[in-house]
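ZP: hey, is the zinc ion complex queued? I don't see it on the tracker
AM: it wasn't, my bad. submitting now with these inputs:
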Amino acid sequence: MRGNIISYMEMCQKEGASLQKGMNFRLKGKHSVILMSVRENSPYQDEITEDGTVLIYEGHDVPNTKDIVSPKLLDQPEFRESGSLNENGKFHKASQGYKNGIKGPDIVQVYEKIKKGIWSDNGYFHLVDSWIQKEEHRNVFKFKLVAVEGVTDETIPEDVTDRDVKRSRIIPASVKLEVWKRDKGKCITCGATDELHFDHILPYSKGGASLKSDNIQLLCARHNLQKSAKIQ
Ligand SMILES: [Zn+2]
């Protein structure tokens, strides 16, 4: 669920796979999974824009092997050595297919590293565009993903045909970190430290802000459920 805080192990359990790479196209033939980070020391330039509703995700470099001195000086590849598409290539092909009206959008589950050992479930996105961008020394892939509501684990990517989706919004990592520190990594109601969730005090759907820590608090799964039951 979007806004949940999870560990790396829980992430792998949820996806039924060992998530070694940042980009995983159609894991098990269903949705794709990407791992993002906007932390200063992260290797790629991922960016949240349009009020938290859009993720611009950077493609990945050539694998770091003994023969390659500096992957950061080389164009990001689209193909493997064998000539088949790599993850950049597969995501690129899927988003171009959507852009050109050939297919529905691929569904992508996004996880974000907040700090060591702490990940946030950023929920499901639609992969809607991609391009190759010229940087100082080389070309990199950029992928545009829109946070959407109403996608579940059972949604099959190819069955999504509606192009007018309800956008959702994610909380910026800087706000999440601030809230985590302020609430000391605990549910503010009972002090529980597991199954935590970044909760909008005034819900986003009712006009509550996502961009300021004043409107975000840590709640455990139980107190989050209790609160949403009250609101509805
Ligand atoms: Zn609680």
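AM: back. The beta strands are 5-6, 23-24, 32-36, 47-49, 54-58, 106-115, 118-134, 139-147, 196-200, 216-220.
ZP: great, adding it to the tracker
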